[in-house]
Amino acid sequence: MTTDTHDFLDWLKTQIPLLEHLGIERLDWDGQALEVPTPLAPNVNDKGTGFGGSQAAIATVAGWCLTTLCLKERGLVCDVVIADSHLKYLKPVTDDFVTRVSLDEAARADELAERVRERGKAKLALTVEVICKEQVCMRLEGIYVAIRR
Questions:
Q1: DSSP per position, the chain
Q2: Which of 44, 71, 96, 130 has a 20 to 30 Å separation from 52 between CA atoms?
Q3: Which domains does the chain have, with CATH numbers?
């Protein structure tokens, strides 16, 4: 089952009102990787570069979306939360940017779903990157937890 990401994003904006203000118009999802293209303008700080709080929010949500979509497409409805995250701001974001997160191998999604089915919950470690002009500007290392409803 493939998720309609337009409908998913519309629903997500009703659940997390902050997303309405970040300029996110689409999610690019291929079943293993997610990209969130984002305009700089609504996420700018007083220096004219990307606001760290916006980057953190978008990166956190991107990992949440990947985890949720992986499980949803395997027939599982779960509550997903971020349990731990570490952020590194490496370069200023000076233009529109994209946030990327992926599973290093397709089998990880199946393993995640199997753990949820067996135990009722599972953890997934993800690396999320904010990319601007082909350079990694921010990196989030996070642990997401999925709990079967």
A1: ----HHHHHHHHHHH-GGGGGTT----EE-SSEEEEEE-SGGGB-TTSSB-HHHHHHHHHHHHHHHHHHHHHTTT--EEEEEEEEEEEE-S---S-EEEEEE-SSTHHHHHHHHHHHHHSEEEEEEEEEEEETTEEEEEEEEEEEEEE-
A2: 71
A3: 5-148 (3.10.129.10)
> 102 with 34: CB under 8 angstroms?
yes
List per-residue pLDDT tens for the chain, 149 residues long.
678 999 999 999 999 999 999 999 999 999 999 999 999 999 999 999 999 999 999 999 999 999 999 999 999 999 999 999 999 999 999 999 999 999 977 678 899 999 999 999 999 999 999 999 999 999 999 999 999 99
